[in-house]
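Sat 14:20. Reprocessing the chain from the morning session after the first attempt stalled halfway. Input below, unchanged.
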Amino acid sequence: MTREEILELFTKTDVLKTGHFLLTSGLHSDKYLQCAQLLQYPEATEKAIAELANNFKDKGIETVVGPAMGGIIISYEMARQLGAKAIFTEREDGKMALRRGFAIKPGEKILVVEDVVTTGGSVKEVISLVKELGGEVVAVAALVDRSGGKVDFGVSAYYLLDLDVKSYAPEECPLCKEGLPLVKPGSRKIK
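Finished this time. Tokens:
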């Protein structure tokens, strides 16, 4: 898929929103990516993930893991396309954990997936957990990198779309200074 085709798909499925948003990281932004809008359409999701999956066909991925909530559907579809197992992490006492009987074996080749990378915090927590359990993180994949390429996971990272979307600390936010209402569209409670 070309960048234009990806943007068209994201526009058609109402992924990209504009306004004044409180991100999970605590930062503010004038744009928000709601990838759940894309993920409600199985055929569109299959097409988008197929584009990302091409990067991993020969990497021997055994398990795909993503953080709840954003990474659950993506991990499932990526694993389906790669013939791998799909699992997800959840927060337990404020820390990423494997629950529901999920396990990672020492040396298991893992692909970590996410919907949107802003600061990379959730993905870094998943990588840390995988390493604690003895898994080998082969790479990271996400639908969107909105960090402007600033996040380093210590492994290769692949994105369907790179968007350099500005984020602001609350005390420096020009949208707050304009008095625009702040919306928190994400699914996680801010720390």
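The longest strand covers residues 136-145.
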